[in-house]
Each structure stands twice: as C-alpha cells, then as structure tokens.
Amino acid sequence: MAGSGAGAGLLGRRHECQALDDLLAGLRTGRSGVVVLRGEAGIGKTELLRYLRDRATGCRTLKVDGVQSEMELSYAGLHQLCAPLLAGLDGLPGPQRDALGTAFGLRAGAAPDRFLVGLATLSLLADTGGDQPLVCLVDDAQWLDRASALTLEFVARRLLAESVVLVFAVREPSGSEALGSLPALPVTGLTDADSRTLLDSVVTGPLDQRVRDRIIAESRGNPLALLELPHGLSSADLAGGFGRPDAWPLSSRIEQGFLHRVQSLPAETQRLLFTAAAEPVGDVTLLRRAAERLRIDVDAAASHADAAELITLGTRVRFRHPLVRSAVYRAASPNDRREVHRALADATDARLDPDRRAWHLAAATSGADEAVAAELERSAGRAQARGGIAAAAAFLQRAAALTRDPARRTQRAVAAARAKLQAGAFEPAATLLATAEAGPLDELGRARIDVLRAEIAFTQNRGSEAPALLLAAAERFGRLDATLSRETYLNAVAAAIFAGRLARGPGLREVGRAARGAPPPPQPRVPDLLLDAVAVRLTDGYAASAPMMERVLAAFCDEALPYQEALRWNWLASVLAADLWDDERWHLVATRHVTITREAGALSALPDALDSLAHMHLIAGEPAAAAALIEEVGTVCAATGSTPARVGPLGLAVWRGREREARALIDAIMSEAVPRGQGAAVTVAHWYHAVLCNGLGRHADALAAAREAAAHRQEFASPQWGLVELVEAAARSGSPGPAADALEQLSETTRASGTDWALGVEARSRALLSEGDAAERFYREAIERLDRTRVRVELARAQLLYGEWLRRENRRVDARAPLGVAYEMFSRTGAEAFAERARKELQATGARVRSHAVTTHTALTSQEAQIARLAGAGLTNPEIGAQLFLSPHTVEWHLRKVFSKLGISSRRELRALRLEGEATSA
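Predicted structure:
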C-alpha cells in the first residue's frame, strides 16, 4: 500500500497514522496512551500495527496475537505478552508477584484474584516503561481469552504517566464487550480513488472498467478484499465481467477465496495447513513433531508455491491473515480435525503443557471417553488454582459432555455450573444446572443445585428470588450436614436483608423463623452466633436480640477471629453495629473489613465494605474521607466491570445539601432497585430523602419520606433512623401525634441498645416534644451524650435544634452559643443545607455571622485529595498505587500536581496540612 506524506507507505491512512504518531510522541515525553483499532476483517488494522512498530524506534516493542482456539485457556494471551518481561517479576510487591506467578503457572499457590493479577501486570509494564518507552501491540484482540482481555482492559484504564502505549486491534463485529471502555479508532474503507490505486497494483492484465467498478463497489474500500477478490476471477471475468455476483458478506467472501486456494493445494500440503491451524501457539517444533506422527514431510509440503502465499514457517508459524487460519480449519473434514488434534496431543509434552494436551485430546474425541474427561477435570483444577475460572468452566463443561456415567456426568455439570457462575457466565451456568437435574441426584446434590440457582439470582441483581431457593437448600442440608445447613440459612438471611420490603417470597420474618429451626452446630463458631442473633432479631424483636447482637459484635471485634470468617461476614456485622447504634464497633468492624478485603484482593466484596465505612465517615462529619472511599468504590467497580452502588454518592449529596443531584440519585436508585426487588436500597433512599428535606427545612416533605423509611421496622438500621427524622419533621410541621408515636417506637430500640448514640438521639427527639425545663434538660442530655460519640453530625444537629428552641423561647443571647457551634461544625464539613439553616437562625439572634472561605484544598480533584491523604498518612507510592489500582509512576505524577497546587514541596508539609478526614490505609 503505497502513499506519501504523513503515514507514508500506508495508502489512504493519513488520519489513522497521525493518531498513532501522536501516541508515540506522547510516549517519548513520558505520557502513556491507549487506543483500540476497530474494523472489519481485512480493513488494515494489522498493517497499522506494523506501521506503529516500525515507527517506534528507540522503544521496546511487545506483540501478541489473539487466537480463537486459545480463548478457553486463561491468561494465555497475557502470558505471551509478558513473557519477555518476567525477569522483573521478583521486583514486584509480594502479593502482586505471587498473583501473576500463580496465574502463569510459574509457582504454586491459592487462586489469585484477577485484579491483583491486573495490578501486577500494570506494575510490570510500568517498570519496563520506566527504563525504556514500551509499545504493546495486541492483534485480533477479540480472540484473547477472557482473563487476558479483562486484565489488559484493567491495565489500559489505569495508564497515565508510565511511558507505555497499548494498542489493540479488534475485528468488528466482535460479539464481545471486551475492551469496550477504551478509546476507539475506527478503521474504515479506503476511498474509491485509493481503492483504484490499490487494485491496479495487483491486476497486471486487462481489466474491464465495469469489472473494476464492481470490485471496488463490492470491496467497500477493504484493502484485503481488493488484493484477494481478483484471485477468484478468471482472465475472462476480469476482461469482460462475465462472473456471477456474490451476495455473501465481505469477510465470508474473502475467507471463501482463501478456502478455494487451500482446496487447490496438494493433499499433503493441506494436511500440514490443517495441523498448523489447529495448533494455536505457532510452535514450529511442535508442528514438526505432530507432522511426523501424521507422516507429513514438512519441508516438501511447505515448499509448494501457493502455500508460501498463505503460511510462513520461520521461528514461528505465521498465517498471512487470521482469515487464512479460519479458512484452513473450515476446509478440514471432522475426521481430519480429529486426526490432527490427536497428533498434536501426542506431540505435546504432558509434563510441560498438560492443559493444552488435554484440550487437543478433547477435540480429537467424538464420543464419551472417561480417560479424556478425567484429564480435562485435572486441567480444570490447575486452571482454577491459577485463577482461570473461565478456563476451568470450559474444561469442566467439556468433561461433562464426554462423561458416560450419568452420576459422574451430573457431578461434573454441577462443578462446571459453579465455575461458570464464578466467571460471570450466568446463562451457561443455568443451562448446565438443567443438564445436572436431568441426571441422578441425591438430596445433597439437589441442595447444591438449589444453592447455585440462588447464587445466580442473587449475584445477577441481588434481588428477591434468592431467599426462597436458599431456604429450600438449607432445609435439605439440614438432614445431611448441619454446618452447610447453617451456612446456607445465614446466606438466606443475607439475601432477605437485601430484599427487605420488596421480598417476592418469604420475607424477613419468615426467613428468621426458618433460621430458628436450623440444626444445632457441631462446634459453635462466630457465624453460628451471628445466625442465632439475627434469627432472634427477626422473630422475637429488637429488645430480645440486643444482648445477643452485642456478643456477636464483641466477637467480630476480637483480633483472634478467623480471617476467612471475618472476610465473609464482616459486612453483616457492620449492619448489626449500625442497627445497634454502636458507632465505635461499626467503625472498627467496617475499617477491618476494608483492610482485609484489600489484603485478600477480594474486589467483589470491597465495594460493600467501602460503602459501609464511607457511611460511617459521613455521620462522623468527615465527608472528604467518605468522598475518597466513594471514589474508590467507583474505581473498583470500573475495574471489575460492575455497576457502582449509588447509595454512597446519594449520602454525600444529601450531606452537602445538593438537592438537584440528590433527587436525581434517588430517582435512579428507585428505578433500578424496585424492579430488582432490592428493598433495603429503597429504604435507605427514603431515609436520605427525609434527611435532605429536614436539612432544607421542608418538614412536610421530610415527614412523608420518613414515614416511608420507617414503614418496615423489621429491616435493619434505616427504619430506626427514619423514626428520628419522622419525629423532627412531624414536630416541626405541627403534627404532634405522629411525632409521639414515632418517639415511642424509637425508644423501644434506643433503650435496648443503651449506647450514647442511641440515648442521645432519643433525648434530642424527646426534647422536640417537650416544653420548658424538660425540653432544655433533654437537649443538654442529647448534647452531652452525642459529644462522647463519633457521630458528629448528630451532635451538630442537636446543637442546632437546641439553639432554635432557645431562640423561640426568646432567649436569643443564650441561643447564639449552640447555633454558633452548629454553624461552625456544619460549615467546616461542607453540610451546606444545615449550615444555611444554622446561619439564618444565628442571624435572627442578632449575631454577626462570619462567612467561611473555601480552603485551597478544594483545588484538588477527588483523586488528588485521596492520594494526598494517603501520602500524608505515610503510605509509599507503591502502597498507594496498590490501594487505588494505579502504578507508582501515576501516583508520583498526581503528587507533583498536589504539591504544586498546595504550594508545598514535601510529604512532611503534606502531613502538616492535616487534610480533613482519615486516610484509610490497608
């Protein structure tokens, strides 16, 4: 493809070449870059990658090709890309080094979290880019295995200042969402003028003008089509245009052209090409060993002139284009395919590459074969140990299909379904469960299937279908395994808590009643105490369960609690702490939960842990710390590809008094949560709505929202907080009857709890319905109790209400002190609506109100502020990067901007600034 000017050598690709040149220019100044070339087969994506490689003088270049038959082998593509860099593996932080080494099968260990693998890959590439600018090219990325694609997408989203360029080429339509979040550069057809130039370069004989126009029209500017379609036309066709028009899709027609060329080759050459197409790695030595078993003379077969235009045997096996490989494989008959896969299996070293050997054996098998199925099952175990859940699922699914014994086939189908579920493939998981149900099942097997169905329902949308399925499984387990039964009952309780008021089957009370019937534990553990406490809370009520909940929280605060139990159930302990008005234990449990989920790399659990701790910071009057955690929730969800929860951002918007933003978030939560049956989220949204309206002084609206929040008393925490808002809203809007009823309900829980937080908000609420000395006594009690807690928001609100009451009692001078304290507290923490309410009340006393200037810290972006807080807490750049999924280079880049904005030059000065909020280091 000839051309001139920018992008010389690539005809008609000036714009694309300029974009790639810009990436290289940024790379040489220390800036990273990412782009995905998207276009149909043959459009020129591979040529653009070659152009970039040739222009990347002075840079280190790595390249990997996605191969369709490798899509089931987890981390295969990533391993090929990173293999030249593995000398730097030992320089990574321990958890990252172990995760990547285990994923690549270089060391033994527990299955690594795929996001630790992603962070390790980011660190490895960043370290390499720090020594020499690095260009990574990934062709046919639509055929990367899922683990590699997700890892590289994770890395690409985090690149900023590492001197790394990552360029993917994806064939469209790809039928995959992989890499969908990355910036794209569409590669479209050449212009008609450029198409004529390219066509003329390959047609040497006479070419009828009408035929030329037809080829150009049918090729739609596709360069490979322009180069290949003339091969399918005779000289008469070219000269006179007598060939028949073809209505196939263009990529199919190109592939069909390659297919005809393959079929015209000698039989032995075809068999060599079949074998090469079935061997995805491009290993010439392996190809020769397999060919020897098939009695193919490789050199003679490859020497055919037409074969040389389709395949090259150098240091690696390379097809001219991926469409050639697919055309060759399609040309092989089923018997031919089984024969070459058998030869490849025999030629593959069972010690060095047992999984690829097993995959070839499976492809060579047409009927049931227990030996091959067992090999696949062992491969699944190895894949799972490397964190390759998708690969394990594929091995197990194929093993189930090759299993003759019905009972064994059922077991393997259930195992495959679990692996598919863990890989996020919900529909295939459900299909495999249907297969399993068709086979022989005992009670234990049926119970396991019930649990899997419930987990599919719960994982997909955390909706209300799961509790009934889990209860059924727990009941079956009860006759077989007490420990499994109790664990499943606890899972049912957890699912019921999320469903809350929107349960479409057994609700909280019914689930609690069923859990009371769980078999006694063989040896009681902390999760057993948790189950018993929650079951009593849901059946006998709050007061009866409060002592049990206190004992459970004490156990969760114990450093000796087994790690796995803390990792799995700390989130529910946080719910109990909030329900029990125990701010100290809530903070301790939530902080520990965030710490251990980060340490474990359990990113699926991290958003809930962060959200709970963020809420704790909000009611502690630390919105900046909360904002940092909420930002991290978004970071983690972006990394995992999951939908971020909106409850945290809603709490931040409500606290800051941003009505429009808060109402939009409330509407979004309702539109998502109601159809999914997520009742707990609905209750929280109503409570936040009530807080928003009380802050704005719209007490009638607050009353309506608080009634909704408090309507379902069996739910945890939020209905009680709704009662607090209901008392204030009703008292302020002239509805003493509803206020008194709400106070009576509130006192049932606050007296049973007995914490300063609980008794403080009760005293404040009681003061709103009292007069004279009694009111003042209750206000003073509320302030005294709340001053001993972390919940500074409730303390500030108590000061505000006390000041408002004093002013209405015509004690304006006395009112200034509590109103001034409230105003200072609200202003300092950015609670704009409550601060404005306090300001107006303070002005009404005749006091002069000093306005609060915005500090220079607000010049920082949320990510800069988050990094500044962590750096100020003493974390190193690698530690900050590990927590925020950034490379140390990017952390350093952000810190330079922080220092510049704040006018400082060292971390010591950063610590001295005492940025508001706590750094939440692991």
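Summary: The chain has a mean pLDDT of 85.
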